[in-house]
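Design a sequence for this backbone.
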């Protein structure tokens, strides 16, 4: 019998203590959280969360509304400072004080609203805030070539022109542009918040394939999703949140739909099943 998944009850980023000991953080993890807690006044949104996110794998973060998923990714992304606990990046303890700090480490977050400008074209969105200049002027040719290169590397083939306005794109295409922007800036961890929400069947398949390609490039992907079919289609690992606590985490093979639902709704499961979902 395979081992059960772990179950629990309860400026520039700076390295704080140097390399961590083998007992403090998984040496194979790109990002590790240890005992991370976040409180908003008397409300404890996160309670002693331990989580490892390895490079080159898709980790699905699942849980009901109010489970703490959004708070957790905003803490990783530097929007919220943890009340207590530690974050380790490549084995070194770091402090992330802002989204710019997270970006400097190599962490990119693609939120559900995608943060794209509909009135700008694809190239302008890809380089927004990171424009390339030459002799004091925008280097439009270089930016367009780089955009085409990144989209080609990710096999994004449904875009007719990189000079299309983003407002004219489908939901799946917009998601692809947001992800490609993160990859272009050499992100090593891409966090995706409900990437297939409100997408049709073909667009969902397009985004799931894109997630797989990110992992194949040795990029760590942390996906928040309520769609368990999507989770089991792309995830290598599953982490389940319940009322601010990470109640279970492990390889996707250690879960099926029934056990995942039980963990999401109750925070525990009576039996361990290793059967793959249908």
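Sequence:
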């Amino acid at each position: 019998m395979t081992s059960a998944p772990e179950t629990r009850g309860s400026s520039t980023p700076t390295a704080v203590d140097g390399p961590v000991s083998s007992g403090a953080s998984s040496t194979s993890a790109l990002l590790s959280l240890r005992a991370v807690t976040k409180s908003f006044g008397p409300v404890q949104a996160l309670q002693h969360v331990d989580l490892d996110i390895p490079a080159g794998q898709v980790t699905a973060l699942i849980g009901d509304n109010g489970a703490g998923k959004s708070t957790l990714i905003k803490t990783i992304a530097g929007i919220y400072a943890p009340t207590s606990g530690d974050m380790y990046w490549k084995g070194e303890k770091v402090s992330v004080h802002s989204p710019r700090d997270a970006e400097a480490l190599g962490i990119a977050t693609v939120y559900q609203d995608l943060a794209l400008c509909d009135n700008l074209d694809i190239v302008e969105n890809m380089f927004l805030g990171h424009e390339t200049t030459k002799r004091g002027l925008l280097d439009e040719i270089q930016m367009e070539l780089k955009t085409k290169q990144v989209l080609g590397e990710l096999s994004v083939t449904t875009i007719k022109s990189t000079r299309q306005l983003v407002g004219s794109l489908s939901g799946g295409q917009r998601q692809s542009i947001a992800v490609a922007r993160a990859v272009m800036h050499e992100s090593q961890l891409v966090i995706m918040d409900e990437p297939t929400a409100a997408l049709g069947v073909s667009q969902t398949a397009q985004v799931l394939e894109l997630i797989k390609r990110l992992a194949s490039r040795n990029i760590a992907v942390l996906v928040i999703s309520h769609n368990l079919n999507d989770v089991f289609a792309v995830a290598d690992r599953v982490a389940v949140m319940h009322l601010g606590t990470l109640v279970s985490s492990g390889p996707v093979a250690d879960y099926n739909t029934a056990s995942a639902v039980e963990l999401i709704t109750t925070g525990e499961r009576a039996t361990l099943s290793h059967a793959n979902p249908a």
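The helical segments are 69-76, 99-105, 122-126, 140-153, 171-184, 201-216, 228-234, 257-266.
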